[in-house]
Structure formats: C-alpha cells, structure tokens
Known about the structure:
The protein is of the alpha/beta class and 422 residues long. It has 2 domains: 3-210, P-loop containing nucleotide triphosphate hydrolases (Rossmann fold), CATH 3.40.50.300; 221-391, Rossmann fold, CATH 3.40.50. It contains 17 helices and 14 strands. The chain has helices at 10-18, 26-36, 51-64, 68-71, 84-98, 116-122, 134-142, 159-164, 168-177, 193-202, 233-244, 256-268, 282-293, 327-334, 355-364, 387-390, 404-416, and strands spanning 41-44, 77-80, 107-110, 129-132, 153-156, 183-187, 207-210, 221-227, 249-252, 273-276, 299-302, 317-320, 344-350, 372-373. The strands form 2 sheets. The protein has a 7-stranded parallel sheet. A 7-stranded parallel sheet has the order 10-11-9-12-13-8-14, with helices on both faces. Helix 2 packs parallel to helix 3 (51-64) and helix 3 crosses helix 5 (84-98). Residues 21, 23-25, 28, 48-53, 311, 313, 339-340 line the site of adenosine monophosphate.
Amino acid sequence: xxxxALGLAPTLAQAAAQLGWxxxxxxxxxxxxxxxxxxxxxxTAPTGSGKTAAFVLPLLQLCLSRTNAxxxxxxxxxxxVPTRELAxxxxxxxxxxxxxxxxRPKVVTAVGGVSINPQMMDLRGGADVVxxxxxxxLDLVDHNALSLSEVQHLVLDEADRxxxxxxxxxxxxxxxxxxxxxxxxxxxxTFPAVVEQLASRWLIxxxxxxxxxxxxxxxxIEQRVILVDASRRAQLVRKxxxxxxxxxxxxxxxxxxxxxxxxxxxxxxxxxxxSFHGGLSQGARRQALGEFKQQRWDVLVTTDLAARxxxxxxxxxxxxxxxxxxxxxxxxxxxxxxxxGAPGLAISLVSxxxxxxxxxxxxxxxxxxxxxxxxPGFEPTESAPTNDQDLQGTGxxxxxxxxxxxxLRAAAALTNRPLPxx
Length: 422
Ligand code: AMP
C-alpha cells in the first residue's frame, strides 16, 4: 500500500520516496491514519522499525496544512527525546523530508552539552518545530528564548528512556507549560508502570498501537553466545572481526573507562577502533559517530549511551563485550543492527563469571534454546565465582555505575546488616 493510500499528502509521499521509502513499514501503516485524525497515541514498536517517519510524516502534514499566516514561526510541534544523538537524528529526518517542499518549516534542536547561545540565536524569530532534551528545553524557556504556549503536537520519544535518565521532574515542568488542548504521541520500546503513569497524565483517550516482533526489526537479527575467559575477550573480538572482514561493528562495554581502554587495545591490534560515550565532549561524540557512519572507523566501542535510538545504516554486527545490565537493555543494544529489515548479527560474550547473568537475560528474552558456543583456541580456563562474589554485581558488568535501585538496595542492606568495624 503506498503512503498516499494512508492519507499522506503526495508532496510528503514524494519526499519519502526520495529517501527510498516507497512502502510504509508496519508501524507507519498503523500510525499514520491515527495521527492524521488528531488522536493521541500510545505506541510500542521495535527499534529500527521506521518509528521516526511514523510520527514525523503525519505531523509535518498537520503542521504544514495550516496557512503561513497562522504559523508565524510559533512552535507548534515539539519532540522530546532522551539524548542529543536521537535529537540530531530526528532533526536530520525532518530536514531531509522537507528539503524539497515549497514552504519549509524552521526546525531547531535544543539539547544540552553544548553552549546555549547558538540555540538562543537559532530560536530568534521563532521556530516551527523544536526537537529537544527536556533539561535544555526548560533552560531556553527560562531564558525567554522559547514559548511552549502554542504547541499543538507533542511527541515523547523513547519515553521509558526519558524516565530512566531521570527526566521525570523536568517532564512535569514541561507538562505545566503546555496548552491543555494538544495532540500527544508517546513512543516507548517498553511499558513499565512508570511509563503507564506518565501516559495517563499526558494523553487523553489514546489509541494504542503495538507493533510486536517480526516486522522488520530484531527478528532479522541472528544471535550467538560465546563462552570465553574475560581476559581473552579482546583477542577473540579481534580474531572474529578479522576473520569475517566485518567493516562496521558496534561493541558494547560497561563503562566509559572500558570503552576507551578496549578501543585503544583494538587499535593497537591494528583495527580501526574508537570510543563513544557520555564522558566525551559533545564535539568529540558528534565526530566519532559521524566518522563511524561514514565508515572511517571499523569499530565503535561504546557504553549504553548508544543503545537507544541510534540509527547507523547497514550496521551488520553488534557485540556485547560486557553483558547488558538487563534484558531490556539487551533488546535495545541488539536493535542497533538488523535495522529496517536488513540482516544483523548480535554476539554476546559470556565468561564463566557472567554465565549466570546471561542465563537470566536469556530466560527473559526467550533465548534459552540458544547454544553457548566455545570456539577452538578460546576454551575457558577460568572458573565461575562463588555465590558471595557473584552477589557483588550482576556478573561481569564490573565498573557499571550502580543504578538508583542498586543504591537503594545497598542502603537497605546496610541498615539491616551493619558492616563490622574494620
Ligand atoms: P527508525 O526506526 O525511525 O530509526 O528507522 C529505522 C530505519 O528505517 C532508518 O534507517 C530509516 O531510513 C528506515 N526507514 C524508515 N521508513 C522506511 C520505509 N518506509 N521504507 C524503508 N526504510 C525505511
């Protein structure tokens, strides 16, 4: 079914076709008519399923259908996202889709980590569309650089991540600044209770759309699990990349330090590897990601910063060098490959001390049938830790910053069981 059959204007359908999008993906087919009808929407969709265009296309149509005199560069469309990278990606999609239009909306990104002044300059004279992270959005409102009183369409993208990253208070403040009459779309890969709560306060009688499984996301991802001693993982990664000639590999580790360390190690092993994490300046992050997308690096070693929303075309392989903390993080990490129906491979390295943690993830992800491979020359020699050692973490994710929950658990444990004097 073509886009126009879903009610999309021919100009926008043409703009999509110029990007090679001629047939709507499953999420786009279900979302477009709902958004065009003006209803609120609560949607789950697998990563890489074409979610961005699913909201950008119909919302652009609604915004552009208003007359110029009505628009007057008031911000009528606001997209809230958890990370700067996702903001940049959505900005790019909007720019690409509108480049051939007669009257182009003015789009501004408002994200932290960079100086606020250029964003204040960008907002001079108003902007039709603002793509923002919540903290910086509020800074700009506080500086009178932006008003949210004209917002008619609001998108909360990766809502679960917005809450994970501790944006709850900022979101409350944003909500108070928005007009009551507006259309709100909420996208979330998972729907924990906190997101349901958020939805009940932000949305009015939302239509619900859940795009599950196989189309066209993670189902196209082949998964492998390899058992190897922790100390030999770097060597194994080098061997696998060389042997298979993979040219773009995203490697996940548990900490910023580990990302730098492993990237250096792989680089010394003559692989083009660099690191990408929240400890880098915004400029360095943009550069590393840009260069990786342009294939100037073969390997990007990253933390969970890159686990959500990042879209790198034709990323064939994702490697969990350190296992993710949770089954949900696993879904997001491996969702970086197998995008838009392309085949992908996700390899998880498991060492004797993280095997128990892997089994937990596998159970939650329905992966218990997946064989744990041992590769010749990399047979494990280390032994699994005792239960006591294992309690120190989730096994193999050393260096990972404890979450709020971990801290609360630790505090509770301390009050119940005081530490003996040293
Ligand atoms: P997203 O889930 O928005 O990050 O999109 C994932 C990938 O799907 C991006 O690389 C898009 O370029 C691509 N994409 C989006 N819509 C379509 C479509 N209708 N047909 C083919 N590819 C698409």
